Amino acid sequence: MGSARRRASVGLGLAGAACALLGFSLLLVGPRIVKQQVIKNVRIDPSSISFKMWKDIPVPFYMSMYFFEVLNPNQVLQGAKPVLHQHGPYVYREFRYKTNITFHDNDTVSFLEYRKLFFQPELSNGREDDYIVVPNILMMGAAVMMENLPTFVKILLSGALAGLKQEAFMNRTVGEIMWGYEDPLIDAINAIVPGMIPFKGKFGLFVEFNNSNSGLFTVNTGMKNISEVHMVDSWNGLKEVNYWRSHGCNMINGTAGEMWPPFMSPTSLDFYSPDACRSMRLVYEKSGKFQGVPTYRFVAPKTLFANGTDYPPNEGFCPCMQSGIQNVSSCRLNAPMFISHPHFYNADPSLLDAVEGLHPNKDQHGLFLDVHPLTGIPMNCSIKLQLNLYIKQVSGIIQTGRIKPVVLPLLWFAESGSIEGSVLKQFYTNLVLIPSLLDYLQYICLGLSIPLIISAAVLMAMSQRPPHHPTTQSKPSPSETTPLLHDSAALSQDDAEA
To answer: For 337-365, what is each residue's pLDDT tens digit?
Structure first.
């Protein structure tokens, strides 16, 4: 019995020691293994898991467009407040892919990323041939751009506008506003002020957006330093742009807006947006999960489009108006264009009061990025921006009537996408499930080792205890009883003979 207990004790002790050793090994080595796997799979290398995702983005992206129709154009010409009505969404499936991928010796890679948009009528609330009354963007923009020119030049333009039957507002289809329409005004303006509008052909807000690239990006591959992966080294050969009035505002910071370095902290993230002509910083809002994957949510701070008075670092983006809008005329052919959050969300209340029909709220109009902090890969995102045109009465150009100065919303759009399907499954298995199992396994092993070692110690102690013998009453020995029995038998035999 004692030897059996000793054998069981040794077996349990060895099992407990093995569990403890495995648990401590995983505790020490497990995080290092996970980190090495993350580094291996998120750097820009053809052998990494994320390379194909980076090269040909498999995430279904959608661009949803919302247009603002001016319901009272004649009254606006007389000085009334514009009344707006939102149309949409007009949804486009967006495909992104990279070409001209060139690796360099300094741990960088260059590429061009193209976008193609395809209208999705089944997801849209309207068609591309819907007519909408909007400002005559080309005419009203040119009027404001010519405000400080000599009066005779403005009168000359006004006559040309009258001859071309141009008015302050126009009735165009969604497709024309998006993808362009022929306008003789382009040639007329260039004839009066050569070079003011340096393009020919169609005019549309997104005429150069579809099937075009966003410029030549050169980014770090992370092969030597993983903390630099995806960080922009240059854009179109530039280390900084020259649109703005300060070095800080011209800096190209962060990534190209697709992925970020792994092992993120809940602070902020930066990216350069060619569409906004500037770098943007989003700030951490909260932690959460997307389809079981842990995420950090980053949102736009109120200071993103604040003016230089309310937020001095933005002084370089001026000339400024109210906070909540940014003047992008310096990178948009000097046209009086402004960007903002949709419906003037987080903007100065005076912008909202200048028009009717806007209803800003965070859920519908706030942008966000949900990023997996371990890998720096976005899981779910919705980037939203609004385009606005500054219009006003311009003396000498009678077509502008008595329009009061107003930043008038034209449209807003949301570029949204999330990882799903087989891509999400592979991502979850390799970068979430397996690391989690390793994490749980180390604590399970350590937890099992304790009762096993305790059980072994108890059994060993029991096997060392001396055996216990119970006490019994002594019986007479045969040497004492035999003679008595013998004499009794002999006596009985003598009596029988007598």
So the answer is: 999 999 999 999 999 999 999 999 999 99
